[in-house]
């Protein structure tokens, strides 16, 4: 599906975050990616998922939650990737900026991976009227434990069957949520879903979840 591509810069608290926005014709929603540990908007995994979402009629925004200098520091000590409170603040600010700029007047969802999923859940809890759905891929919802009960967006947690510790953490987190939620296991997949077909299944599940809940958001807005 043809998309309109925009390279954008999001100013937040004196810094600028770089992003890539893809908007298909007649897009039904916008999915903002919250990258996980040591990742960026250039991640092949996230770009693959974004391509699948684009072909399903969903706009996507892949952007870096860290500046280039912060990424260099994080590559050394891995500290910033676990500062989920800071990452969530930036995700909220980026969401507000996108809405204020009118770049995509659509229902908004978050797709978070690893620690980025924790940031997505915290941000969704802070913007309950704005976020229509959340998908977590191999996420660390345990790092968002204080915000789980406040999340209102329907949340899908996708976990690899071989990623046993993370699977347990997701099931424990799900038990604390009051929003509609599911934990879906991709059999045999490890944390990065590198096994043949595993990431395709993640993308398929995510597209279905977003399409379902964005459609519900459109109905709610029209009523």
What does this structure look like?
The chain is of the alpha/beta class and 223 residues long. The chain has a single domain (3-222), classed as Rossmann fold (3-Layer(aba) Sandwich). The chain is built from 6 helices and 8 strands, in the order βββαβααβαββαβα. Strands 1-2-4-3-5-6-7-8 form an 8-stranded mixed sheet, sandwiched between helices. β3 (30-34), α1 and β4 (59-63) form a beta-alpha-beta unit. The longest helix has 25 residues, at 198-222. 46% of the residues are buried. The model has no long low-confidence stretch (mean pLDDT 90).
Strand content bin:
15-25%
Number of discrete helical segments:
6
The whole-number mean of residue pLDDT values reads: 90
Main β-sheet: number of strands, strand sense, barrel status?
A: 8 strands, mixed
Task: Indicate the multimeric state.
Answer: single chain
**Helix amount:** 25-40%
Cα-atom radius of gyration: 16 Å
CATH class reads Alpha Beta
Which class of secondary structure composition applies to the elements? alpha/beta
List the helices and strands and how they pair.
Layout: E1 3-12, E2 15-24, E3 30-34, H1 44-55, E4 59-63, H2 68-77, H3 84-101, E5 108-113, H4 115-126, E6 131-137, E7 155-160, H5 164-174, E8 181-186, H6 198-222
Parallel strand pairs: 3-4, 3-5, 5-6, 6-7, 7-8
Antiparallel strand pairs: 1-2, 2-4
Helix pairs in contact: 1-6, 3-4
């Amino acid at each position: 599906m043809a998309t309109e591509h925009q390279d954008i810069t999001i100013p937040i608290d004196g810094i600028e975050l770089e992003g890539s926005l893809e908007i298909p014709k007649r897009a039904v929603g916008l999915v903002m990616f919250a990258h996980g540990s040591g990742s960026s908007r250039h991640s092949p995994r996230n770009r693959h998922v974004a391509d699948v979402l684009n072909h399903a009629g969903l706009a996507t925004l892949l952007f870096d939650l860290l500046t280039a200098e912060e990424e260099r520091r994080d590559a050394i000590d891995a500290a910033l990737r676990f500062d989920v409170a800071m990452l969530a603040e930036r995700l909220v600010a980026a969401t507000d900026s996108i809405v204020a700029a009118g770049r995509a007047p659509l229902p908004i969802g978050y797709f978070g991976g690893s620690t980025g999923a924790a940031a997505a859940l915290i941000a969704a809890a802070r913007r309950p009227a704005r976020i229509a759905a959340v998908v977590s891929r191999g996420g660390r919802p345990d790092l968002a434990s204080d915000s789980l009960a406040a999340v209102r967006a329907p949340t899908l947690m996708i976990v690899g069957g071989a990623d046993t510790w993370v699977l347990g953490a997701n099931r424990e987190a799900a038990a604390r949520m009051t929003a509609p939620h599911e934990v879906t296991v991709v059999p045999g997949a490890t944390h990065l879903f590198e096994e043949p077909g595993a990431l395709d299944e993640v993308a398929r599940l995510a597209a279905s979840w977003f399409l379902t809940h964005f459609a519900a958001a459109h109905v709610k807005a029209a009523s």
